[in-house]
Amino acid sequence: MQPPPSDDIDFHYIRNLTYTISPNDTDGPRLEKVAELFIERVARYLRGRGHPETAKGKSVEHEDDSIDTDRRTFRAELLLRTATGSASIPLTTWNICVCFFFPSALSR
What we know:
Elements: H1 9-12, E1 17-21, H2 28-46, H3 74-84, E2 96-100, H4 103-106
């Protein structure tokens, strides 16, 4: 079986997005739904191309104008660079985990 192409967003990026919910949170079931929707929205964003428009309708500036922002992996690489410091897909098993909690759970 041949490996997926390097621009397969679902295989290389989205399947590595996970979440946890604060074990001290009493609103776990509702927070579980929020977490699922958040990951779903992040996945939809990662499948897009280029920079999304900001609230004011302008493109977000980026550091280097020579970067091809229209390639399929641009958004996923930005997320990976933000989370790990590198845009390269790790060669080992990896994931990006988002923790969900209500601020009230911190004071318990």
